[in-house]
Specification:
Layout (H helix, E strand, L loop, with lengths): L21 H10 L3 H54 L3 H26 L1
Helix pairs in contact: 2-3
């Protein structure tokens, strides 16, 4: 037996995106008339679905941020009320903690608003 060598050639094509290449489109259309239109319609429906989901996610993110800001504002108001009451009753040491909570909550509200504007 002699040493026989065989050459193997591998050919591959890669593309990225929801649609096939124009050559493949024409091949689909020749094989099954109307297939190209169906592929385009499928890609359009998928893109519309993706955009709707992105809109829902964005809206939910805005709502969640708004709820966080409202909660931080309420915590700040309650803390300021406790701070005021403790000052009225001449308890300055007790008033330090609510004052810190109030100021950090207010800072969180304004920092959250500033970050959402970007």
């Amino acid at each position: 037996m002699e040493n026989e060598s065989k050459d193997i050639t591998v050919h591959s094509i890669a593309y990225q995106g929801p649609l096939p290449t124009s050559a493949e489109f024409s091949g689909y259309e020749q094989t099954l008339p109307g297939a190209a239109d169906r592929i385009l319609a499928l890609a359009e429906k998928e893109a519309e679905h993706r955009r709707k989901n992105e809109d829902k996610l964005l809206e939910e993110s805005i709502n969640l941020s708004r709820k966080g800001q409202i909660f931080a504002f309420i915590v700040a108001l309650v803390s300021l009320a406790i701070f005021g009451v403790s000052i009225l009753f001449k308890q300055p040491l007790i008033s330090i903690v609510p004052a810190i909570i109030a100021f950090t909550s207010l800072a969180a509200v304004f920092m959250g608003r500033k970050n959402n504007d970007k």
